[in-house]
Amino acid sequence: MIIYKDDEYRLWDAHSHFSNLISKKLKFVLKYLSTYETMDIIFQDWKKNRNLAKERLERNVLFYIKVLDYYQIDKAIHLPVFKLDRKLSYKMNEMFPDRIFGFSNINPRSKTLDEDLLELLEHNAPGIKLHPDFMKFTFKTYQEELVKIFKFCTENKIIILSHTGSHSILKNVIPILKKCDESIFIMGHSGLCPQVDDAIQVAKTCPNTFLEISGNPYTYKFMEAIKDPNIGVERILFGTDIPSLNPRVEIEKVLCLPISVEEKRLIFSQNLETLMKTFLKSKFKD
Amino acid sequence: MNKILEVNIPDYKLFDFHRHISNIESFDKNLKEFNIGSFCLMPSMIDNDFEDISNYINKIKPFVKKYADRAIIFGALDFIKGYEDNLEILMEQSKEINIKGIKLHPEQIFKIKKDNLEPYFKALSEILGNNIPIYIHMDWPLLEENRYAPNGKKNTFNKIVTFFPDFKYIMGHAGGSGDYLNVWKSCKKFSNVYIETSMAPVTSTLSEVVWKIGPKRLLFGSNYPYCGTSIELIKILCMYQVSDADKKAILESNWEVLFTE
User: Fold this and answer.
1) How distant is the Cα of A13 from the closest Cα of chain B, in angstroms?
2) At residue A6, does pLDDT exceed 70?
3) Do A245 and B231 touch (CB under 8 A)?
């Protein structure tokens, strides 16, 4: 929760990451994935912090909580960076079910796709992340597999969030969403700069889609989406993309918009809260 | 529960290296709200300025008149036309709106080959001199042959700098959303490269420029009216482990070296 000009805002972050790779030895690699400030939160008191928990997985969940606390984030969707981070997400759901929505990830190219999907049920995952770049797929070339994933997710109350902005033509997700019109699809980064128009087009065409705004600098496009009668402020989600991006910058993207305090509250938390409550139902822990 | 820092607008005049025109009243209001003294005005792809340079000249004239002592105008080349036509295009922009620099936008679809670019840079040298600043928007188009992956600095910006090393270059939007890591390396490789900060997705990479190269290569830009000026300002104000003096240089005075002989 933050206070800005005497107004209180809860922060529900629709886009955050952490990794089970946290270790001092890998600090040189982590600097490509994380801000220096976030690394300092973790590594400054390393001797003390490494003893937060005996088990590595548990310790990394507590590190993530430290980062959320530092940036005053009330609740967050956690998205695995690598396949090995799925376990971290599942552990988060176990340890902090009322604060973290630990998503899994599914690669449509996986040779064990059926097993991967069943794993979601086994761990009661509230959502999955897709990443066309890391997973080397496009919405067109893997349409059949993606339809299968989207249908499975819809039947089992699982939200889908994809990286957008590169590595696939975003508009090619529309035929998939037309076939799976009850799927909840969050466009991470709202298409960044190169695909922001496509993201807005998808949002206009497919009513169960959401625009998550981390990393996207085009505030004039956010306003276009907010004013569009086929999208509206209720489908815009706040995200920080921690630890890669600077949360203060991402917070300002909402605070500076020429909209009411109530509308800012929708973006900062209420839209995601409504989505979680209505779609996840029993999986949602308040 | 804590208060978060409000954007403290510095009490010194800011220099905004990347602005576009808008409604003139809103433009003026924004300058006052953020204490912006002087600024560069750039052609915009969103506003079709590169397609219709004559229209750009007409649109920008009222701003040139109103902000004669505060605005530095950037012009455009027409890559559909050849050398002779571009001599005229540059002359017209020089005469009508007194351009002091050129902006290149990747969606102008020019080939990054020395032979292809040479006539345009020759025209620039002849009309404006070869010491002028060239601003290059980053975020190159996502193309099928590139599997929709962003085209990086190495194959774009850095190549152009290597082809025509006499000019001064500004890397727009700190590399853009496609290739924002390690922008300090381009500064290290080329002494004539500067980084403009608007739309920078990450603040860490800006801090790295200060730590590894020094504060003088960063230029604050707002990309008004397409981005929020407070967002762009806060990126500089919250740069990690960077002194207030260095932030002041980025916001206020680093631009000066680009317009001296």
Assistant:
1) 16
2) yes
3) no
B93 close to B52: Cβ distance less than 8 angstroms: no
Give domain B14-259's CATH number out of 2.30.110.10, 3.20.20.140, 3.40.47.10, 3.30.70.260.
3.20.20.140
A9 residue type, one letter: Y
Q: How far is CA A119 from the centre of its chain?
A: 19
Name residues 69-88 of chain B within 8 A of A (Cβ).
none
Task: Give the span between the Cα atoms of B60 and B42, in whole angstroms.
Answer: 9
Angstrom distance (rounded) from CA B77 to CA B56: 12
Q: Decide if domain A7-283 falls under CATH 3.20.20.140.
A: yes
pLDDT of residue A30: 84
Going by the DSSP 8-state scheme, the letter that residue A67 receives in this structure is H
Percent of chain B predicted with pLDDT > 90: 88
Res B1: pLDDT: 44
**DSSP result, chain B:** -EEPPP----SSPEEEEEE----HHHHHHHHHHTTEEEEEE---TTTTTTT-HHHHHHHHHHHHHHTTTTEEEEE---TTS-HHHHHHHHHHHHHHH-EEEEEE-GGG-----HHHHHHHHHHHHHHH-TTSEEEE---PPP-GGGTTPPP-GGGTHHHHHHHSTTSEEEEGGGGTTTS-TTHHHHHHH-TTEEEE-TT-S-SHHHHHHHHHT-GGGEE----BTTS-HHHHHHHHHT-TT--HHHHHIIIIIGGGGGG--
B211 touches A: beta carbon within 8 Å: no
Give me the residue from B4, B178, B228 closest to A253, CB to CB: B228
- Is residue B2's pLDDT more than 80? no
Residues contacting residue B115 through CB under 8 Å, at least 6 positions apart: none
Amino acid at B53: I
Q: How many CB atoms lie within 10 A of CB B106?
A: 20
Angle between helices A196-205 and A219-227 (to 10 degrees): 10
Q: In chain B, where are the structural domains located?
A: 14-259
Say which of A168, A215, A253 has its CB closest to residue B148: A168
